[in-house]
């Protein structure tokens, strides 16, 4: 596939799309998303609405309108635009008949720019630009211009349209719109249907060029509009407008906040707002950017992915999850999976530590949801939700897929058997501790999670007295096609790790912070015998070992399953939309796996020899379908560790373009499946830093094992490690680490297992 079928490259930050294709509308909306972790405004034309998947997803607005699917709500659209030129409605869908449009997206500042030339009205041009502000998270600012107007009658219908696109809605009711003619502000109040969260959308606007000759207010059931007759000035009309959104979860009085911001933003004007917004991004990129020299397309793709991982994270809050599709649409319920800790988080761990902390604090605040889930299923401690919204209660329904052949519902056990999400969170806490050195967080928040996860594992695990070992039976690992398996290696190793870290911090606190430990023991009623039991389990848990061929079995008896490939299975499908997994799918009784599983174990734990890595990589690779966007980046990391730079690069191509060159159907089996794959986006950071640069972290500190693909001349990235800043430069045969002058300590690190020390302001350069 050629990228030029999808977009062209303007430069290393800017992507361009010329001539819009209808089958790509869903992807434009997601790929060209303006976002800031609070809201996500899809990349649609100003004149588009729900038919073309226009939406602005607002964080923290969970609503269960249909009694089945809790999801985030879409805000009414305050950038609604209807343009009439001499009475002819313009820019309406299908736009191809009327306009030639060029879209441009700037990933440095998240700026969507659209330029359309009329085919029907000679020379008439529309240029519109918008961004979701990082300076004021509630704001989307827009500059809209019409030029080359030759004595035409221009009518513009602006306003706030509450008739929005919803997957499982409608989520809004009780609309009330008002127009304040003094201030030029419109607002629309509503509330969510089931959760009753008030939501206010406001619009302020001013004409920079042109004169309003006539204005009429139009109230509809779910919307409020202004019909404007406008006289052009020097053949031009220029409009600045601000869309402001506040919910009742943000402020007690969202209306007054929205009006205040609407006024203020109008006063400041588009240019000033843009500068303030850009200044925030400039700061972010200082640590988060990755520069690729030698391949412009790859550079742009890397930034695309970094951008999307950043805007998916609600960095402003410690109470909200990163959705598997971020805020790009309502799919996957705006909720966190294990993706959050294992895929999205690593980038923040080594760049924006505060954001990493907030992500983990979210797991602390949702402990009660996890406790409830454990209790409901007959366990103790914290069993985290497979799909976790604001409260942490399980959002994953028991019936996720439908058998397309029989039409019957499939009882998948993602919600009750996919237990690795709990130890994955413990794993992330440990890594946060190593990367930040923030013991305070562990003592005040992390320890409680670690203890409750250990408690859960204790209650979930079985003792096999014949083998004198602990086992985890009836579960599913990362590979979701095989459910109801025993001793998934990934889960068993992760569980041992989680138990060990709980024990480690228990004794560390006992020695260093006995009072804090005592408080926590009392709070969660922890007994010493429990800790002794964790110790015994961690020593006697069954950890599948490499066999005579160095292979680790993914789960008990996996090697006895039919040995085949995904290509063979494709020919066995009766219907292309069939689900491949448990209980009856084509992959179930075969060794074909959906995604990295043993390989996922390797990316997280560096405890196996190179021979074992090689044997398993070569074995599992041809048996992996990569049916999940999470998979390629993890294979890439292990490929690089094996020195197979070109294979890592092939996986880069697979992973980095999942959304950029998406030909996936937007809707499958009646379910909308579009949106940004945020785990793949976060995976790109891992692929480069943990893969090509071979960075690992453990108690001894940072280590690197660099290797680089032929296509890239150089990679530059930044690290924030224990409050010290570093710049890394990876070349074809060299690796350089420079320490920021302001660092207050020497860094000890290793490259190819050789140790180095790095003083503030100095650099270490290694040739290989
Ligand atoms: C993957 C899971 C992942 C989920 C959300 C599924 O397709 O198999 O590993 O957590 O998508 O991204």
TrEMBL record:
The active site is at 480 (proton donor). GO terms for molecular function: carbohydrate binding; glycosyltransferase activity; hydrolase activity, hydrolyzing O-glycosyl compounds. Keywords: Glycosyltransferase, Transferase. Residues 303-686 form the Glycoside hydrolase family 65 central catalytic domain. Residues 695-758 form the Glycoside hydrolase family 65 C-terminal domain. InterPro entries: 6-hairpin_glycosidase_sf, 6hp_glycosidase-like_sf, Gal_mutarotase_sf_dom, GH65_N, Glyco_hydro_65_C, Glyco_hydro_65_M, Glyco_hydro_65_N, Malt_Pase/Glycosyl_Hdrlase. GO terms for biological process: carbohydrate metabolic process. Substrate binds at residues 338-339, 594-595. Residues 18-247 form the Glycoside hydrolase family 65 N-terminal domain. Pfam families: Glyco_hydro_65C (PF03633), Glyco_hydro_65m (PF03632), Glyco_hydro_65N (PF03636). Belongs to the glycosyl hydrolase 65 family. This is Kojibiose phosphorylase. The lineage of its organism: Bacteria, Bacillati, Bacillota, Clostridia, Halanaerobiales.
């Amino acid at each position: 596939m050629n990228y030029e079928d999808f977009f062209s490259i303007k430069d290393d930050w800017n992507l361009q799309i010329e001539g819009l294709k209808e089958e790509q509308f869903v992807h434009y909306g997601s790929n060209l998303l303006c976002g800031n972790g609070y809201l996500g405004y899809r990349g649609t034309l100003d004149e588009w609405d729900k038919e073309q998947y226009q939406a602005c997803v607002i964080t923290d607005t969970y609503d269960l309108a249909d009694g089945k699917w809790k999801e985030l709500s879409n805000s009414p659209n305050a950038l609604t635009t209807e343009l009439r030129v001499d009475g002819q409605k313009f820019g309406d869908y299908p736009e191809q008949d009327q306009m030639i449009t060029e879209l441009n997206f700037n990933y440095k500042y998240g700026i969507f720019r659209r330029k359309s030339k009329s085919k029907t009205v000679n020379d008439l041009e529309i240029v519109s630009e918008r961004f979701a502000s990082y300076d004021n998270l509630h704001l989307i600012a827009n500059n809209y211009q019409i030029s080359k107007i030759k004595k035409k009658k221009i009518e513009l219908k602006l306003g706030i349209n509450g008739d929005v696109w919803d997957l499982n809605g409608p989520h809004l009711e009780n609309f009330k719109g008002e127009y304040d003619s003094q201030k030029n502000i419109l607002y629309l109040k509503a509330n969510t249907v089931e959760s009753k969260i008030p939501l206010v959308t406001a619009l302020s606007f001013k004409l920079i060029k042109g004169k309003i000759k006539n204005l009429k207010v139009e109230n509809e059931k779910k919307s409020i509009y202004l019909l404007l007759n406008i006289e052009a000035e020097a053949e031009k009309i220029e409009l600045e407008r601000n869309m402001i959104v506040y919910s009742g979860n943000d402020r007690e009085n969202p209306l007054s906040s929205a009006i205040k911001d609407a006024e203020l933003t109008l006063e400041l004007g588009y240019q000033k707002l843009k500068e303030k917004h850009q200044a925030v991004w400039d700061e972010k990129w200082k640590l988060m950017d990755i520069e690729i020299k030698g391949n412009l397309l790859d550079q742009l793709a890397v930034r695309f992915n970094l951008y999307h991982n950043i805007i998916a994270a609600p960095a402003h809050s410690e109470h909200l999850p990163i959705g598997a599709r971020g805020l790009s649409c309502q799919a996957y319920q705006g909720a966190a999976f294990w993706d959050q800790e294992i895929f999205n988080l690593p980038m923040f761990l080594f760049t924006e530590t505060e954001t990493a902390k907030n992500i983990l604090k979210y797991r602390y605040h949702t402990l009660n949801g996890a406790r409830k889930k454990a209790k409901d299923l007959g366990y103790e401690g914290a069993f985290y939700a497979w799909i976790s919204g604001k409260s942490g209660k399980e959002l994953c329904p028991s019936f996720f897929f439908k058998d397309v052949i029989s039409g019957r519902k499939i009882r998948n056990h993602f919600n009750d058997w996919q237990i690795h999400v709990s130890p994955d969170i413990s794993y992330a806490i440990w890594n946060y501790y190593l990367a930040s050195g923030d013991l305070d967080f562990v003592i005040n928040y992390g320890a409680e999670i670690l203890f409750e996860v250990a408690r859960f594992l204790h209650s979930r695990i079985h003792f096999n007295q014949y083998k004198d070992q602990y086992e985890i039976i009836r579960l599913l690992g990362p590979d979701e096609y095989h459910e109801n398996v025993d001793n998934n290696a990934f889960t068993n190793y992760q569980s041992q790790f989680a138990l060990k870290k709980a024990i480690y911090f228990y004794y560390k606190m006992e020695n260093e912070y006995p009072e804090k430990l005592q408080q926590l023991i009392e709070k969660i009623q922890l007994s010493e015998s429990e800790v002794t039991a964790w110790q015994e389990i961690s020593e006697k848990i069954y950890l599948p070992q490499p066999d005579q061929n160095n292979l680790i079995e993914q789960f008990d008896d996996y090697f006895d399953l039919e040995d085949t490939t995904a290509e063979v299975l494709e020919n066995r499908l009766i219907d292309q939309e069939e689900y491949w997994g448990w209980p009856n799918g084509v992959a179930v009784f075969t060794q074909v796996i959906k995604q990295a599983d043993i390989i996922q174990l390797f990316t997280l734990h560096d405890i196996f020899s190179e021979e074992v890595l090689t044997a398993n990589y070569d074995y599992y690779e041809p048996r992996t379908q990569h049916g999940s966007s999470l998979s390629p980046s993890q294979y890439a990391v292990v490929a690089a560790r094996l020195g197979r730079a070109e294979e890592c690069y092939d996986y880069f191509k697979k992973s980095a373009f999942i959304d950029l060159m998406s030909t996936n159907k937007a809707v499958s089996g009646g379910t909308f499946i579009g949106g940004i794959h945020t785990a793949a986006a976060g995976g790109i950071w891992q692929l480069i830093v943990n893969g090509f640069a071979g960075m690992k972290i453990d108690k001894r500190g940072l280590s690197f094992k660099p290797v680089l693909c032929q296509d890239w001349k150089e990679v530059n990235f930044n690290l924030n490690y224990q409050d010290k800043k570093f710049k890394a430069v990876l070349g074809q045969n060299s690796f350089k680490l420079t320490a920021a002058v302001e660092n207050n300590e020497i860094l000890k690190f290793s490259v190819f297992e050789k140790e180095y020390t790095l003083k503030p302001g100095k650099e270490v350069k290694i040739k290989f």
